[in-house]
């Protein structure tokens, strides 16, 4: 888990681990602090060979899939290298992204 102030990014190897982590965090927040994870702000970025066939649920609600995720000043994007190939996550800042785009 990545954590800063009120922002959290939870990383899981598969949908079962991620679902358990999200629901455990929500249970801890609810029981200890009388807080809940905001339903409108829950998003998931899937890094998989076949992301279209994966749905991440939290208490039976399907989380919104996003192609890019912002955490603090960083952007994370999931990129599939080749059909049937491995997926990877690219991490960059806005300044780095502009530099990369200008060189192309």
Polypeptide structure, described:
- The protein is an alpha+beta fold.
- It is 28% helix and 31% strand.
- The strands form four sheets. It has a three-stranded antiparallel beta sheet.
- Strand 1 and strand 2 (7-9) form a beta hairpin.
- It is globular.
- The N and C termini lie far apart (34 Å).
Summarize the structure.
With 104 residues, the chain is an alpha+beta fold. It has helices spanning 15-33, 94-103, and strands at residues 2-4, 7-9, 43-44, 57-58, 61-62, 64-65, 68-71, 74-80, 87-93. The model is unreliable at 99-104 (pLDDT under 50).
Layout of secondary structure:
Elements: E1 2-4, E2 7-9, H1 15-33, E3 43-44, E4 57-58, E5 61-62, E6 64-65, E7 68-71, E8 74-80, E9 87-93, H2 94-103
Parallel strand pairs: 3-6
Antiparallel strand pairs: 1-2, 4-5, 7-8, 8-9
The termini sit apart by 34 Å
How large is the share of residues in beta strands?
A: 25-35%
Derived from helix and strand composition plus strand pairing, the structural class reads alpha+beta
Helix content percent band:
25-40%
Uncertain residue ranges: 99-104
Taking the sheet with the most strands, its summary is: 3 strands, antiparallel
- Continuous helix count: 2
Primary descriptors:
104 residues; alpha+beta; two-stranded antiparallel ribbon; 28% helix
């Amino acid at each position: 888990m990545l954590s800063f102030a009120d922002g959290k990014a939870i990383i899981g190897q598969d949908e079962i681990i991620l679902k358990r982590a999200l629901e455990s965090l929500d249970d801890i927040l609810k029981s200890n602090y009388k807080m809940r994870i905001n339903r409108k702000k829950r998003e998931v970025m899937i890094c998989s060979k076949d992301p279209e066939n994966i749905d991440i649920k939290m208490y039976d609600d399907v989380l919104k899939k996003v192609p890019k995720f912002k955490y603090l000043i960083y952007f994370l994007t999931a990129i599939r290298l080749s059909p049937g190939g491995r997926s990877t996550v690219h991490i960059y800042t806005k300044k780095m992204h502009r530099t990369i785009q200008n060189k192309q």
